Structures are given as structure tokens and as C-alpha cells.
Amino acid sequence: MKKGIPFNWPPLVGGELDALRSVLERRELTGNGHFTQLCQQWIKDRLHVTEALLTHSCTGALEMAALLCNLVPGDEVIMPSFTFVSTANAVVLRGATPVFVDIRRDTLNLDENLIEAAITPRTKAIFVVHYAGVPCEMKKIMEIAKRHGLVVVEDAAQALLSEYEGKPAGSIGDAGCISFHATKNVVSGEGGAFVTSRPDFSEQAHVLWEKGTNRREFQDGRVDKYTWVDHGSSFLPSELIAAFLHVQLSSADRIIEDRLASWNAYHERFASLEQVGAIVRPTIPGNVTHNGHIYYILLPDVEERTRVIRELAARGINAVFHYVPLHDSPAGKKYTRVHGTLPVTEEMHARLVRMPLWTGIGDQVEIVAEAVHDIVRRT
Predict the structure, then answer these.
(1) 3 state SS of 332
(2) Looking at domain 16-250, does it have CATH number 3.40.640.10?
(3) Which residues have a Cβ under 8 Å from the Cβ of 85 and sit 6 or more positions away?
(4) CA–CA distance from 298 to each of 88, 133, 149, 325, 378 (Å)?
(5) What does the pLDDT read at residue 98?
(6) Which residues, at least 6 apart from 282, have a Cβ–Cβ distance to it below 8 Å?
(7) Which pLDDT score is estimated for 228?
(8) Cα–Cα separations (whole angstroms), residue 174 to 151, 207, 289, 301
(9) Are strands 175-179 and 192-196 parallel, antiparallel or unpaired?
(10) What is the mean pLDDT of the chain?
(11) What is the spatial distance between Cα 117 and Cα 111, in angstroms, rounded to a whole number?
(12) pTM here?
């Protein structure tokens, strides 16, 4: 039962229980069954990729991507520090070093103009993160990667059905990773997907996904038995997860339409506060479309951010900050390095507040917005 206005409230679209019941009736509990195939086909069709594999999490998808990059100790991967730990962990688990580059002030995405200076002979890949479902400047990033022979992995955890110049987020680089965690737009509790259109990545991804075996070749009739052929792991979710997800994916457009309506309502309601310099609203570049995943405001400093969150909580409204930059964490100091300095990362993380936003929040957006107006006006 909701108390007050929660930051997140995972959607139920109807049909989830019927789908779960269907799995139980089939006794098809392990993964890669009927609903897994339906989900993967939906993802391939909507993201315009040739391969989609469900995973137990976006973390798992990122780990698959790192394996496909053939990272070894001494390699480096460029990425933002303003991201969830899974982006960096996937690289660290291979013995490679995340190299943090600063973010853009407008979108909070990796600053494409700082990437090239961070490239060394050890650089193997660029991991981009589409923060808040707003795609990075992929054209320039892909040009840099091509020029230097680097792999591009899109951490599109937050960006399902967002687009960059008409291309779905996650489909532009060499590989894309998506999340269906309960905090995302389309959910399955835990869950994710790995996508690619590179034939070599597709073939090897199946081996990784099938615990290092050539089971796909066996299923396709290309070998008479399957066996252990390379490294891999258990990345596949159960069919129960896939069944739940299939129902959610079938309603993805409606879910995103609902979230975008709430996102736009916040954006309109906060315009006057931005005009007087009390806050800064999100910026959406003209060459992208986003999916309404996060609505945030930027306050003048961390003290004001803390006060606003505290006073909203006193009114039963759960607004929250976001990532503590990875370079400032104990593990970040141990396993990573920073290229240059990260002044925008350090400033933005201290100023950012995320507003409650979930499917069906509806008129409660006005309650939140009015509370923010009242609190900020009393600064």
C-alpha cells in the first residue's frame, strides 16, 4: 500500500497473473521457452537489431558485453563516473580499468568532446550511458570509435524506446544493454536484455548465454551434441520472468505515453522556477526523443538539495538524489582512474533531485510541483 507519494511504484498493466499461470500450467519454468522467444522477438522488432537475449539483469547484459570486448588486464574502457556501479563492475571483473571522463552540463551524459583526449594505446572500448533515457551524442561517439578501432557499448538501462536521430537507443553501438528492473519504465522485477547487430557478437553471445556451450548449434542441427566450448555463465532468466515481461512489453507504448505526460506536466509546472533562477530543468536535445524515465531538477547547491528533499519528505513526498560518482567511492579509488578532472560530474550530482514519476501518478504531479514551489520560494 502506498503511503504519501512514493518515488517509484512499479506498474501492473493487467494480464501478468494470467501469463504466470500459463507458465505454471506448461511446467516450463526454466528460461528460453515460449515467453522468452516472444520477448526477444519484440525487442528485435522494436529496436531494429538482429539479436536480442534476455538476461537476469542489465548487470548481466553489461558483463556479457565486457566479455565480448575481449577485455584483459591492462585494457582501459572510457565511461562516465556518473552512472550505476554495474557499468564499471563489468569492466573491473575482466581485470580492465574504467577511465572516467566528465559529463555534459545539459544532458548529464558522457561529454563526447572529451573522449578522444582520454584515449591511450590501452583503450579498448567506450561504454556510454543514456542518462534519464536521453540518448548520448552517438554520431560523434561512433566516429571517434571508428577512427580509433574501439568497441562502443550502450548502457541503455534507462532508455528503452528512446531514439537518437530516429535510431533506437541500444541499437547504434556494437552492443546495447537494457534493464527491466522494478525502477524502470517496463519492468519484470529483475531482468534485462543484451542486444547487438554484429554477427560475430551474436554468435559468441549465444555461447556466453548458454553457459559456455554450443547448445544453439545443437538446437539448430549443426552439431549432434552440445558441449563446453568457451567461457560463459548463467545469464538467462526464468520463464516466469519472461512471461511477466511479455505482458509489460505489450503495453510499453502506453506506459511511456503515460510517463511522458507526467514528465511534460512537471516540465511545464517548473518553467517559472527556472525563469527566476531557482532551479534548472532537464534539457532534451532536438535530435533525440526520450521515454520519460526520470524527471529531475537541479538546485543551486547540495545544502539546498538536502533541504528540499527533507521538506518534501515531511509532506509525505519521496524525492531522491541519484548516483554518488563512482570515482569518489572506495572501489572507484582502487580500480579506476580519472582522465583530467570531473567538475561537472561533481557539481551535478550534488545539485540533482529526482521527482516521483511512475505510470499512473497522474494528478499527484501537481501536488509534488506545488510543494516544490512552496519550499523553493521560502529559500
Answers:
(1) helix
(2) yes
(3) 326, 329, 331
(4) 25, 17, 37, 16, 17
(5) 98
(6) 107, 132, 134, 267, 295, 296
(7) 92
(8) 6, 17, 21, 38
(9) antiparallel
(10) 96
(11) 11
(12) 0.96
* Cβ atoms of 352 and 324 closer than 8 Å: no
As given in the structure block, the three cell numbers for residue 153 are 557499448
Q: Minimal CA–CA distance to 186: which of 286, 42, 372?
A: 42
176 DSSP β-pair partners: 154, 195
Instruction: Give the H/E segment covering residue 260.
Output: helix 252-269
Of 349, 116, 367, 375, which is closest to residue 266 (Cα–Cα)?
367
Cβ–Cβ < 8 Å for 92, 98: yes
Q: HSE on the CB side for 218, CA within 13 Å? A: 11
Where do the structural domains in the chain lie, given as residue ranges?
16-250, 253-377
Place of cell 552440445: 226
Q: Are 171 and 135 in contact (CB under 8 A)?
A: no
User: At 161, is the secondary structure helix, strand, or coil?
Assistant: coil
What CATH number has the domain spanning 253-377?
3.90.1150.10
Which residue type occupies 247?
A: V
Buried/exposed 300-316: b ≥16 CB within 10 Å, e otherwise: eeeebbebbbebbeeee
Which amino acid appears at position 80 of this protein? P
Q: Which residues of the chain have pLDDT under 50?
A: 1
Q: Name the residue with cell 580500480.
A: 335
End-to-end CA distance of the chain: 33
Tell me the one-letter amino acid at 75: D
Cα dihedral across residues 75, 77, 83, 84: positive or negative:
negative
Angle separating helix axes 58-68 and 199-209, nearest 10 degrees: 120
CA distance linking residue 142 with residue 176, whole number of Å? 14
| Distance separating alpha carbons of residues 179 and 161, to the nearest angstrom | 12
Count Cα neighbours of 286 within 13 Å in the Cβ-side half-sphere: 0
> How far, CA to CA in Å, does 164 sit from each of 111, 118, 122, 285, 310?
16, 24, 29, 10, 36
Task: Describe the chain by its helix, strand, coil percentages, rounded to 5.
Answer: 40, 15, 40
For residue 31, what are the contacts with CB-CB under 8 A and spacing of at least 6?
A: 54, 236, 237, 238, 239, 241, 242
